[in-house]
TrEMBL record:
Pfam families: HTH_3 (PF01381), Peptidase_M78 (PF06114), ScfRs (PF09856). Residues 510-538 are annotated as: Disordered. It comes from the Bacteria. PROSITE patterns: HTH_CROC1 (PS50943). Residues 11-65 form the HTH cro/C1-type domain. It comes from Sneathiella marina. SUPFAM superfamilies: lambda repressor-like DNA-binding domains (SSF47413). This is Short-chain fatty acyl-CoA regulator family protein. Keywords: DNA-binding, Transcription, Transcription regulation. Belongs to the short-chain fatty acyl-CoA assimilation regulator (ScfR) family.
Length: 538
């Protein structure tokens, strides 16, 4: 087992929870107390025999020592503490690991606080842009100053002139009253402008997409209850006809849903439309067969198991109704994948075909993205596949999907490292690109990436292009057909990468787009300097 700064900390916490001294536990393990002390302080690796013995003595599942969950938490806390907000502080990685192991609730609270800070910071930036550029606000500001000046002038005249006639005094007061009413309207208009929909007290919560991503990560992207429901649902359907016919027949028979394929003359903005009142589902002819089957399975799940998804969509990550709704949608998508790609059959095929995505597409009639998603859900404790990470990015570098079981740190805020194969895949559309990458901490990963294009409903509807990256720790790379012929240990084949520019302390990176963490700057000044520094240089 690889040495990890998290395992010793977790071992120490579990020992203390059981009220055992180091001497007591060492005696039961058959090792010296000094050696156990080295294990707890991460100076020795915990071997498999010791791990199994520990699980028996401490009466815990061996998976308790898995660094995966803590690794994800450590990555997010590290991401937080590398923000310029903390540029004067230096946080040791071991201290962060200890905090994640011994105070996960405190780490979650810190993450929530930072989420709120980033959200507020974003709102302030947006507000600043609106205030400086919006003509409506500029006009309101001018009217505000004019009205205040008018009211002040009229009031001073009435106040300073005792000999003012009653008629004139009344006229000036009428002006003050009218301008005051206009002032009230202008202020209300400006407050409505500043405090619009984007600036509510709910903005401190993470977005529904981020919340669902955290929820799925916390469950390791495996939901046994949904797997069981998909298996039982499949057993009730016919097997002698195509999936499309099977699912359409089920919808008609059990839910009175009529399925119709329509061209863009009937609808030209959505690939699917379902009318709950009239029980009518319209599917666009532009959808490929894999997408048709997926959407039919999706609707079957929505109609057959709404209570199941609602029961599962519960957790501290889902902080509001919008996040819960998004989570239910994600779980329904999980059901569709579980139905179309049965767990045991799919895992067997994946291992036999060495995770060849294109061959899996042919065998199961699924899309490239569907296969990639399903591969990341093969995390059943008793029978699991390779721990993988998955990232989806658009052309602008916005990450719209992220999950990591491999240990790869995926940035929560901002774009990822431009050296990741995820981004270079856009240079060769439709071609699978492999990469061996090395993080600043020495961790190595094997990843592949390929672009996918969502179906278009016609020439006037712009296509959506994404890059999807799937990968694992380099120790598992030999299980993937894409690593064949690559020297997994040769330095020349390894690409040095980071998480994101502001978290990466690699010197002399030509693709740096932001300054490195402040803690690393003092060590990055060479004796010789580049007289034409790049954008991220300082």
């Amino acid at each position: 087992m690889a040495k990890s700064p998290r395992l010793g900390t977790r071992l120490r916490r579990l020992r203390k929870d059981k009220k055992l001294t180091q001497v007591d536990l060492a005696d039961q393990l058959g090792i010296s107390a000094s050696y156990l002390n080295l294990l707890e302080h991460n100076r020795r690796s915990i071997t498999v025999p010791i791990l199994l013995r520990l699980s028996q003595i401490l009466k815990v599942d061996p998976l308790v020592f898995s660094p995966q969950d803590e690794g994800h938490l450590i990555a997010e806390i590290t991401d937080t503490l590398k923000d310029p907000l903390f540029e004067d502080d230096d946080f040791d990685e071991t201290d962060i690991a200890t905090m994640a192991a011994e105070a996960p609730a405190l780490c979650s609270a810190l993450k929530k606080t930072y989420d709120a800070y980033k959200s507020t910071q974003s709102d302030m930036q947006l507000l600043s842009e609106r205030l400086s550029q919006d003509l409506l606000f500029a006009d309101s500001s001018f009217r505000l100053r004019t009205l205040v000046t008018s009211i002040l002038s009229s009031t001073e005249i009435v106040h300073d002139n005792d000999d003012l006639s009653a008629k004139d005094r009344k006229e000036f007061l009428k002006i003050v009253l009218k301008d005051s009413e206009n002032l009230a309207d202008t202020v209300s208009e400006m407050l409505g402008f500043v405090g619009g929909d984007g600036f509510t007290d709910k903005s401190s919560a993470p977005s529904p997409v981020e919340a669902v991503s955290d929820f799925i990560q916390s469950k390791n992207n495996y939901f046994e209850a949904i797997e069981t429901a998909a298996d039982e649902f499949r057993a009730t359907l016919r097997e002698d006809i195509t999936p499309t016919q099977t699912l359409a027949e089920y919808l008609r028979r059990e839910h009175g849903v009529k399925v119709e394929f329509a061209d863009r003359d009937q609808h030209d903005t959505e690939a699917t439309l379902f009318d709950d009142q009239y029980r009518h589902l319209i599917l666009s002819k532009a959808l490929p067969q894999a997408s048709v089957d997926f959407h039919l399975a999706l609707l079957c799940g929505q109609l057959a198991f709404p209570d199941l998804f609602s029961e599962i969509a519960v957790g501290p990550e889902l902080v509001n109704e919008a996040a819960t709704t998004q989570a239910i949608s994600a779980l329904t998508n999980y059901f569709a994948g579980a139905y179309l790609l049965p767990y045991d059959t799919f895992l067997t095929a994946a291992e036999k075909l060495r995770y060849d995505i294109e061959l899996l597409q042919q065998q199961f009639g699924a899309s490239y993205e569907q296969i990639c998603h399903r591969l990341t859900t093969l995390q059943k404790p008793s029978e699991s596949g390779i721990p993988l990470h998955l990232i989806r990015s658009d052309i602008a570098g916005n990450i719209s999907k992220r999950f990591t079981a491999s240990g790869l740190r995926i940035p929560r805020y901002g774009n990822s490292c431009p050296r990741w194969v995820l981004h270079s895949a856009f240079l060769t559309p439709g071609v699978i690109c492999p990469q061996i990458s090395e993080m600043p901490d020495g961790g190595r990963f094997f990843s592949i990436a390929r672009t996918v294009t969502k179906p278009s409903l016609g020439y006037t509807q712009p296509k959506r292009h994404y890059a999807i990256s799937l990968g694992c720790d380099v120790s598992h790379a030999h299980h993937l057909v894409y690593a064949d012929g690559m020297n997994l240990a040769a330095p020349r084949t390894v690409v040095p990468v980071g998480v994101t520019c502001r978290l990466c302390d690699r010197p002399n990176c030509a693709q740096r787009a932001a300054s490195p963490p402040s803690q690393a700057r003092d060590t990055m000044h060479p004796q010789k300097r580049n007289i034409s520094p790049g954008i991220g240089d300082f």
